[in-house]
Each structure stands twice: as structure tokens, then as C-alpha cells.
Amino acid sequence: xxxxxxxxxxxxxxxxxxxxxxxxxxxxxxxxxxxxxxxxxxxxxxxxxxxxxxxxxxxxxxxxxxxxxxxxxxxxxxxxxxxxxxxxxxxxxxxxxxxxxxxxxxxxxxxxxxxxxxxxxxxxxxxxxxxxxxxxxxxxxxxxxxxxxxxxxxxxxxxxxxxxxxxxxxxxxxxxxxxxxxxxxxxxxxxxxxxxxxxxxxxxxxxxxxxxxxxxxxxxxxxxxxxxxxxxxxxxxxxxxxxxxxxxxxxxxxxxxxxxxxxxxxxxxxxxxxxxxxxxxxxxxxxxxxxxxxxxxxxxxxxxxxxxxxxxxxxxx
Length: 317
Ligand code: 0X9
Ligand code: ZN
Description:
The chain is α/β, with parallel strands linked by helices. 33% of the residues lie in helices and 17% in strands. The chain contains ten helices and eight strands. It has an eight-stranded mixed β-sheet with strand order 1-2-4-3-5-8-6-7, with helices on both faces. Helix 1 (12-25) runs parallel beside helix 2, helix 2 (74-91) crosses helix 3 (95-102) and helix 6 packs antiparallel against helix 10 (296-304). The radius of gyration is 18 Å and the shape is globular.
């Protein structure tokens, strides 16, 4: 499990229990579904929230995910918190949240890589694990799930070496975890907006990641740029094209935008990638509340604009 000082982080069982409790208290506006099983057989949970679940397929949808990378435990705490926030604020009569939830179909997948996350904490001291727990052909373990998506798969910034921390896998969507995300996203054609939480470096990233060239469609490029800049005003992160960080092929957002024209962002959460002793992947549990708080407005902004993200280009979006 987590080291005692980090007990506030949720392991798989604790996350599952929390999602179960929350959704069972708010059955009128939420559902908990397994979107498939991880390699080791854990359910990958998705929470759906809408004020009109019966007709949710007809409402604009946004999807939020975390935990692609095992050691990025903070990235799980955000989608988990926003599920709790939306359900409790709705029930408490918060008018802004009621209006948003009534008009949207919202999807949260807090832990995409449960096997990796559990492995990382399995001895009680962190292992700095990143990938899933696939046993590879050469006896090593793990495929990098954020190199396994099927748009530009096989390009730069992803390794063909199974021992590498950025191993792309034997083929696009070779892993049950990315397959589950693919199937889920493709079965909800109303999804217009996607946010994948990672750690760390305090960045807001948008396509492309597999090439230095930007999105060629001017409006699509602008909508990502304008939204990233706006969200950066709230969380203080640096907005930039993903390949400006480094080239990487096969990530979630290149696929979601490239294949489905979903407006897509990766947030690299706190801490900053500077200075000593800020903790990197293991910043400590005390950081959780402030990171949840500073990213709340960006999440609500994405939800607000999911009906037509291009509204932000009107100037008063
Ligand atoms: O390398 C990744 O998958 C992400 N960074 S992390 O430290 N969380 O592993 C960044 C992905 C951004 N996408 C590209 N640069 N293509
Ligand atoms: Zn990551």
C-alpha cells in the first residue's frame, strides 16, 4: 500500500469503494460501469454523470481520465475529486453545477492503469513504475499506455524495446487498457472534449505530440490554443503544443483528436519541473487539495464548452 505519510492517496480498492459509495448515493444522476478489465483482471471504472441519464447520449459529452502512468498517483485524485464535487454540489443545490450537469453527459475514468498503480505501491515503498504489467517477449514487464494509442503509432518518441519505459507495445491498441478506452470513447459519439491528467511539470499540452508541425486546420489549432491559454489563467500552468515538450507518438490526445476530432488536452500536474525537493512523481499527500482546487475551473470550463468548444473563438466564450 501507500507509505503511511501518503495514506490520503487512493489505492485501487479505496478508489473503487469511494466511487461505489458516491454513485450509490446519487443514483439519479450517476452510474458506475466497468469499461473492461486490465491485464491482471481489474475492472477499469468509468463514472457517468448527467442530469438526464436516460437521454445522455443526446447531450454534449466530455471525458476526463487519470492514471495512465502507474507512479502518477496524483492524476487519479483529480478525476476522483471532480466526481465527488459534481455529485455533492448538485445534491446541495449549487445552481451552476445543476445547470452544467443537467445539460451534459460527463465521463470520468480515474485509473486507466490499475495494475501499474497497484504494483507501484505493492511493497509499501514506491517503485517509480510507469507502464502496465504486460509480460513482454523478452521477459521484461510493461507497455507504456501513453505510447500505445493508434494515431501515428510507431512514430518518434516511443520505443520498440520492451525494456524501455516508453515501450509502445507490439501493435497499436495491443493492451486491454487502451483498447477499453478506445471502445468506450467510440461508443460515445457525443464526446467533444477530453482531458487526460498526468504528472508532473505544470503544463497544459495539446496536439500534436507525434510531430513538431501544429494542427493544420486553423480553427482546430486555435481552439486548442485559446482554451489552453484560458485554462492556464486558473492553474498557472504553461500552455504548449505537446511536441514542444518532446516528440512522443501514440498518446491519448493525438488519437482522440487525430481520429475523432475531439478537442483534447494533457495536463501535467504539480509540482513544477524545477528546483530540488519538490517531489517529482511523489510530491506528498499534502499537495492533493491545492492541485484539485486549482484545476477545478479548467474542468468546469471544458464541461461548459463541450456543447461547442469553437465558441471560445467568438471572443466572448
Ligand atoms: O510522456 C508522456 O506520456 C507524458 N509525460 S509523462 O511525464 N506524464 O509521462 C507527456 C505526453 C505528452 N505528449 C507528447 N509529448 N506527445
Ligand atoms: Zn504520465
